[in-house]
Amino acid sequence: MLLAACSGGPGSSSGSSGAAAPTASATAPLLRDVASGPAPQIAGAKTGGTLTITDEGAPPTFDPSGAYYEFSMMVLDELLVRSLTGYQNVDGKATLVPDLATDLGEQSADGLTWTFHLKHGIRYSDGSPVRAADVVYAVKRSFAYDSVAEGGPQYVQQYLKGGSTYKGPFDQPTVDFPGVTAQGDDTVVFHLVKKWPTLPYYLAFPEVSPIPQAKDTKATYQNHLLATGPYEIQSFTKGISMVLVRNPDWSAATDPIRHQFPARIEIQLGVNPQTTQQRILADSGTGSTTIDVSGVVASVQNQVTGDKKDQFVSGLSPCESYTSIDTQTVPLAVRKAIAIAYPFDQIRKASGESPLTYRPASTIAPPQVPGVTAYPPVNGLTGHGPGDPAKAKAMLSAAGQLGFSLSYYFIDSQPSSVQANVALKAALTAAGFTVHDLGVSAQQYPTDVTNPSATQNLGQGINSWCYDWPSGDSIYPELFAASRAQTGQSAGDLQSAALDAQMTQIENLPITQAAAAWGKLDQQILSQDLPTIPVDYAIASYVFGDRVHNVVNDANHGLPDLAQLWVG
């Protein structure tokens, strides 16, 4: 949104405000090529009992081929299914490790072929063995965008051989898809049309978790999928609840990521977070063994910062919010004046944004992304403060642009958006701009701000982003590639062939070399192009009962590491 933090991202509430300049958690990617299992021990952890996980949201699907909401992906990845790779969280740091695979893959000299070998002895929850053909089928199934993969990620379309035309095994059952093949029962080979150095990150997605074709029930598969993780589904009611019980065929000895602490896990969807969190903090009924991942609500903020602080955890998430500026119609000198005038503090106060919901942003990528190092804020982009309308007005005057017309949409049906707009409009008007603010409904807003034919020049396109994996190739090209601008799905409508070429060059670097290059590009884009104003790093938060233990934030997903929770 133009005037607020990430509103639709996973766990985008809570945290603490602070200095705008981030402290990078890693200057290089956290990767480990060998990890056999079992997962690292957790001191004091107990087994047994029932854990309840609640969420305000209700993901549209838990099918591995279509899951693309953070919550559904985490439930799948950490509790139900295993993919070729995954994230091992230790001491607050998430390291990419091999999961079903023996290592992070063997890349050919030309970078167009990746080979993975499966660990031995891994079985589904029905006792049948996992085979390479099942991984191949799962990847093919993820192309079924008109059915089980609807709304899912589409990276495989652009990278795998034949991916641009393949429709999946349901629509094209006789097509010999060349993008992924099996060699025997334990080897999976990916065939690419262009280099994909970060493929091991994608292979942590549930879309790559094995599915035996003979047991695929298509639309109903998500109801009782074949589990390879520590739990299996006992019951599932879409949009309401899911009950998990222990999977007796889970191979702990080969799993470097997951534990099997609770005997039973009950997941409740679409809950009222206010009543749920109040019940949790009162330790009423099942509240003592419940964790809510909706994000802390205002009514309990005094409690979780006071005597209930031990039942509250917050931390960074993969999401960030921005205010985009149309680089095609707004000159750079004017964009710089907008940045100087931007009233961060007034907008937050007017919209009622709690300091538990954000950290001020000063970079394009969140600070936990490897390579994103702190640099002095450029063009006044501190992420906080009242702005300086007088200085911005002088800048406009010097550029001969006093009275420059700015136009944007805001949501007129939400009081917080209306009040935030009052603050923004006042600051921009004081800075010498002519402001045209157009109120639209919450339902119409997403369509209007991504309409490539719209004439508005502020807040169009992407104003919040959650990365898919902690690498610049899942952030900068997605926000700034010229191809994105053509569909209205960019941040700032940049259409730079030179920038596109630079991003492609970095994308082709090995993971270990690309991180620093992406970090330098972050500063370059804000300094030289200024297509967007970073506003908030979204903060994830969780409220939990006094019998829920080891709540660890996963900054790459904005959710707790579900595989480490225990009750007692």
UniProtKB/TrEMBL annotation:
Residues 1-22, 37-59 are annotated as: Disordered. It comes from Rudaeicoccus suwonensis. SUPFAM superfamilies: Periplasmic binding protein-like II (SSF53850). InterPro entries: Peptide/Ni-bd, SBP_5, SBP_5_dom. Pfam families: SBP_bac_5 (PF00496). Gene3D superfamilies: Dipeptide-binding Protein, Domain 3, Periplasmic binding protein-like II. One of its GO terms (cellular component) is periplasmic space. GO terms for molecular function: peptide transmembrane transporter activity. The lineage of its organism: Bacteria, Bacillati, Actinomycetota, Actinomycetes, Micrococcales. GO terms for biological process: peptide transport. This is Peptide/nickel transport system substrate-binding protein. Residues 95-483 form the Solute-binding protein family domain.
